[in-house]
Amino acid sequence: QVQLVESGGGLVQTGGSLRISCTISGATFTDYSMAWFRQAPGKEREFVSAFRISDRSTSYADSVKGRFTISGDNNKMTRHLQMNSLQPDDTAVYYCAAYRGRLVYSALSTSTLYHYWGQGTQVTVSS
């Protein structure tokens, strides 16, 4: 059974940094493209970043480009999201998601395509 577990969320001041992580179990890490989505109170879930396993390419939402970086540790079967220069608008529950198989680059931001989801981790940025 494939499971995703997020960790590393918390409270940070504006301008600060956090790294959140997503560990996959019950699967071969290198078979999966993985993404981060977030959902703020009263808003729809939105795409944040993704790592496409087939060519190791990355994708970012415009709102986080230059501030967030997605990376991974194959040995630990973990995908990280380093978040710098955090703003109050970044406050949300962050979810990681995994897709097994080939995923076209343009579809990386489509949440409904992902097969597995984590439970989410809260990130709160205080002003």
Judging from the principal axes of the Cα atoms, what is the shape?
Answer: globular
What Rg do the Cα atoms give? Answer: 14 Å
Distance between the termini: 40 Å
Q: On the 0-100 scale, what is the average pLDDT?
A: 95
Helix fraction, binned, reads under 10%
**What's the β-strand tally?**
11
The unreliable regions are none
Indicate the proportion of strand residues: over 45%
Q: How many individual helices?
A: 0
Order of helices and strands: EEEEEEEEEEE
Label the structural class: mainly beta
User: Major beta sheet, specifics?
Assistant: 7 strands, mixed
Identify the notable features of this structure and list them briefly.
single chain; globular; mainly beta
Written description of the protein model:
The chain has 127 residues and is mostly beta strands. The chain has no helices and eleven strands. It has strands at 3-7, 10-13, 18-25, 32-39, 46-52, 57-60, 68-73, 78-83, 92-100, 116-117, 121-126. Strands 2, 4, 5, 6, 9, 10 and 11 form a seven-stranded mixed beta sheet that branches. Strands 1-3-8-7 form a four-stranded antiparallel beta sheet, with no helix packed on it. Strand 7 and strand 8 form a beta hairpin.
